[in-house]
Write a structure and sequence with these properties.
With about 325 residues, the chain is of the alpha/beta class. It has eight helices and 15 strands.
Length: about 325
C-alpha cells in the first residue's frame, strides 16, 4: 500500500510517498480502507519536529484521523464491523491507503455523512467540545477563540455560539476569513494580536487558544476576573514557561491557565461526544469546512499550504 512518511523533520520537503506492506488486524484491531484522511495542525507540528521530545521520531507516518470502510477485523472483533463505514482515530499512522486502528478508537458513521466531512469534524469538533467543557464554559459567558480559522477553531466558534455565549470573538489573519467566521457564529473579529474591533469585549470569561507559542502569555491579560484560558494546540510552538508567573502578578483576578488534550478523556465519554458531533454534522447543525481535497501523494503540498497560513478549515487527503 502507499503511505506518506516523514523522512526528515523540518519543512514539507522531508515528506515522502513510500510503499509499505498492507497491515493485518490483530486482537482488538480493525483495518480501514481509507476514503478520507484529515490533515490536522498537529500533523504539521509533528512534521516540524516540535514534538520530538514526546516520542515522535523521523520515519513515522503522520495522520491522526481517517474515515473509510472496515475491510478486516482482529480474531476477537465482531465480524459485523466488516463493510461498515467508520471514523477512526490514529495517534499517528493515518496517511495511508489502509489504516490499522484499535476498535476502541472507531466510531460508526451516520447515514448521509460523507467520509470527507467525517475526517474534517470527527476529531476537531470533539476537541472543541471538551476544550469548552475543560474551561467550564456556561451559557451567557464571553469566549475568545485564538486561531479560529482551522477546523478546531471553527468548531469551537460554532459550539460556543450554539450553546449560548454572550459574545464569540475570534483572532484571524484577514477580513475575508473574519467574514466567514461571522457566518459561522463569531460576533467579533480581531487580528492576530487580539486587537482591531473597538466594539469587542475588553476581557473574556473563556479563551480557547489553538495557536500557543510565545504570544500565549499576552492573552492572559485579556481574561476577565475568574477567566479561564485553555491551550489546546501549539501551532506556533509551546507556550512560554513563565505563564504561571504572569498569573501570580494578577493574583486577585483569580484567573486560570490550563492545557487540554483529548488523551485525558476516557474512551467511552469521548466516543459518545464524537458520535454526537458526527450526527449533528449529518443533520447540518455543525459544518464541515473543507479547504481542499488533495490526493494522498500531495500530502507535502497540503503541509506547504498550512505552513503558509492559507488554509481555512481543513485539507483532506484521498487515496
Amino acid at each position: 500500500m502507499r503511505a506518506v512518511t516523514i523522512e526528515r523533520f523540518g519543512d514539507p520537503s522531508g515528506m515522502a510517498v513510500t510503499d509499505l506492506p498492507a497491515p493485518t488486524a490483530g486482537p482488538g484491531q480493525v483495518v480501514v480502507e481509507t476514503e478520507a484522511i484529515g490533515v490536522g495542525g498537529v500533523d504539521a507540528v509533528i512534521r516540524r519536529g516540535t514534538l520530538r521530545g514526546y516520542g515522535f521520531t523521523e520515519g513515522l507516518i503522520p495522520g491522526s484521523e481517517v474515515a473509510g470502510t472496515v475491510t478486516e477485523v482482529g480474531p476477537d472483533v465482531d465480524r459485523s464491523w466488516i463493510g461498515r463505514r467508520v471514523w477512526a482515530f490514529m495517534r499517528i499512522g493515518g496517511y495511508v491507503e489502509q489504516a490499522l486502528a484499535q476498535l476502541g478508537d472507531v466510531v460508526a458513521l451516520p447515514d448521509g455523512l460523507s467520509s470527507i466531512d467525517a475526517a474534517t469534524v470527527g476529531g476537531s469538533a470533539t476537541v472543541a467540545h471538551f476544550a469548552l467543557a475543560h474551561a467550564h464554559f456556561t451559557a451567557g459567558e464571553s469566549v475568545l477563540v485564538r486561531g479560529a480559522a482551522g477546523s478546531i477553531g471553527i468548531a469551537t466558534v460554532e459550539l460556543a455560539a450554539r450553546d449560548g455565549a454572550s459574545a464569540v470573538a475570534v483572532t484571524t489573519s484577514s477580513a475575508e476569513r473574519g467574514k466567514r467566521l461571522r457566518d459561522l457564529g463569531a460576533t467579533h473579529v480581531l487580528d492576530r494580536s487580539g486587537a482591531g474591533d473597538p466594539g469587542a469585549p475588553a476581557s473574556y470569561d473563556v479563551i480557547i487558544d489553538i495557536v500557543g507559542g510565545p504570544d500565549t502569555a499576552g492573552f492572559i491579560d485579556r481574561l476577565a476576573p475568574n477567566g479561564r484560558l485553555v491551550v489546546v494546540g501549539a501551532v506556533a510552538g509551546m507556550p512560554p514557561a513563565d505563564v504561571g508567573g504572569m498569573l501570580l502578578k494578577t493574583f486577585q483576578q483569580s484567573r486560570s491557565f490550563a492545557t487540554f488534550s483529548l488523551d485525558s478523556v476516557a474512551t467511552p465519554a469521548r466516543d459518545i461526544v464524537r458520535a454526537e458531533v458526527l450526527a449533528a454534522t449529518a443533520r447540518g447543525e455543525l459544518h464541515a469546512v473543507v479547504h481542499d481535497v488533495l490526493p494522498l501523494a500531495q500530502a507535502a503540498e497540503a503541509h506547504r499550504q498550512m505552513d503558509a497560513g492559507t488554509v481555512f478549515g481543513r485539507i483532506v487527503l484521498v487515496p
